[in-house]
Amino acid sequence: MENLRQHLDAIRDAVGPKGVAEAADEIEPFITETRGLWRGRCELVVSPASTGETARVVAICAEAGLPIVAMGGNTGLVGGGVPDGGIVLSTHRMNRIRDIDPVDNTMTVEAGCILADLQKAAADADRLFPLSLGAEGSCRIGGNLSTNAGGTQVLRYGNTRDLVLGIEAVLPDGRVYDDLTRLRKDNTGYDLKHLFIGAEGTLGVITAAVLKLYPRPRRVETALVGAASPEAVLALFTRASTAMGNMVTGFEYANAFAMQTVFDHGHGTSNPLEGTYPAYAIIEVSNLADDDTARDALEGVLAEALEDEVIVDAVVAQSEAQAAAIWGLREAIPETQKFEGASIKHDVSVPVSRVAEFVRTASSKVEAEMEGLRTCAFGHMGDGNIHFNLSQPIGMDEAEFLDQWSRFKVIVHDLVAEMDGSFSAEHGVGQLKLDDLAKYKPAVALDLMRTVKHALDPKGIMNPGKVLPG
Ligand SMILES: Cc1cc2nc3c(=O)[nH]c(=O)nc-3n(C[C@H](O)[C@H](O)[C@H](O)COP(=O)(O)OP(=O)(O)OC[C@H]3O[C@@H](n4cnc5c(N)ncnc54)[C@H](O)[C@@H]3O)c2cc1C
Fold first, then answer.
1. Which ligand 1 atom lies nearest to the CA of residue 380?
2. How many contiguous H segments (helices) and E segments (strands) does the chain have?
């Protein structure tokens, strides 16, 4: 006990009074998952202002064997940032953009930068930082890196992992791994940055990164499409990517129930199509040239698909406001689904070619299990990633429905495994999916993960109890 007190004092000294929170009300937001699904505990919330301070804090924790949970914006959806003792290390004071280089097309940033601020800084330099997701106003780039976040632009630009050239991280023993390289080519052994990306804070604390920037598209065209089935939406995707290649920057799907929740409960939302349909797509097409190439191409694909009866209805946004309204429909789904009561969620991926088959088969399997169950399927169809949510039957007790979570999870995740898919497409493992990792990850892969964890963090202080099943 005396030892713990001394170590906590040493941490306080390392970061100064501005870098420590310990009153119960100050700590509360850092130990509570924002939806209230998990609540943890910690001794201190520590907010270092620099990589050097972070290294000192981690070294003290290493000596004390004190667990560290790194935290960005606390928007993670799998309980990865919920501490069970030790300290929470919040990155919010490390929020400087160290450098933007429009020739290298790079941006060197600290882990605590909010994603939307990085998008804006890139735009101000006439560049694009393409990572884009619903939580972009509050998630932080260190969290995005640690979860290898996906979002709406993966189709064209890849996951967060694909947007990184270099990383700076504090290792579990307090040493700094400094690889803030801007090189586009460097074949000098293992590419170690990828160990930290997607590790959910189990291998070290990411303190900074060099991110890739892209030219800013001058024209972005957006369409909402109504179709008869997920198969039809997939057929449209194939036509769009064949005709327009990587001009297609986003391709989202929603089933009838998902979109209806937005029409019924969305704030200020309306349906710009002529009717309602069993399936919807949102297509975004971007082009560097400030001319009508993107619009003409999109309208051409849609016109042909309508003529061939692949789709039933389509509307192309005539202004930025209309485009934002179309994306607003998609982004509102997670919120508007809440108006339909409790929901059981899955974040899965299958090969793109099988995504319609997945939606159809999974929907009929779960709907056969419980009368009145409503499937809310939506997501990044162009990446094969579907958020396959289940809304409770109308009138059913919420707790009784949520008690069935494991039963439905097995049905959905077994099907995903049969289809060569993943039980966690973009949200990570955290503590929510530990059982799934143990069940579906091949034994050799699990063994390698444990070997890496033990090599970097032999004392097991970095985010214990997350990602790796015990
Ligand atoms: C409305 C909404 C929409 C979302 N949409 C998407 C989406 O489209 N795609 C998607 O992929 N995700 C999405 N998410 C999930 C979430 O926003 C992402 O996982 C995001 O990347 C988490 O960032 P964060 O800063 O909030 O991380 P946190 O929640 O703070 O942390 C997440 C994990 O990373 C670790 N961590 C955080 N910072 C560091 C660091 N500096 N070093 C080491 N480890 C660290 C934490 O310990 C934890 O395990 C969404 C969430 C919400 C609420």
1. 8
2. 16, 19
For residue 75, report the distance from its CA to the centre of ligand 1, in Å: 5
Ligand 1, atom 6: closest residue by C-alpha = 133
* Ligand 1 atom 3, closest CA: 134
Provide CATH code, domain 341-418: 3.30.70.2740
Q: What is the pTM assigned to this prediction?
A: 0.95
Q: Which atom of ligand 1 is nearest to the CA of 463?
A: 47
The rounded distance, in Å, linking the Cα atoms of 190 and 196 is: 13
Structure tokens at 266: 């969305």
Give one word for 41, left, alpha or beta, with left for phi > 0 and alpha for psi -120 to 50.
beta
Closest C-alpha to ligand 1, atom 7: 151
Helix (H, G, I), strand (E, B) or coil at 196: helix
Q: What number of residues does the chain have?
A: 470
Q: How far is the CA of 325 from the centre of ligand 1 (A)?
A: 25
Strand partners for 283: 223, 251
Do 219-329 and 341-418 show the same overall fold?
yes
The class of domain 2-90 in CATH terms is alpha beta
Just give the CATH number of 219-329: 3.30.70.2190
pLDDT score of 12: 97
Q: Is the pLDDT of residue 2 over 80?
A: no
Backbone angles phi, psi at 109, to 5 degrees: -135, 155
Atom number in ligand 1 closest to CA 134: 3
Annotated domain spans of the chain: 2-90, 97-215, 219-329, 341-418
Cα–Cα distance measured from residue 18 to residue 133, given in angstroms and rounded to the nearest whole number = 31
The span from the CA of 95 to the CA of 73, in Å, is: 12
- Cα–Cα dist 186/434, whole Å: 34
Which pLDDT value is given to residue 280?
A: 98
CATH number 3.30.465.10 is the correct assignment for the domain at 97-215: yes
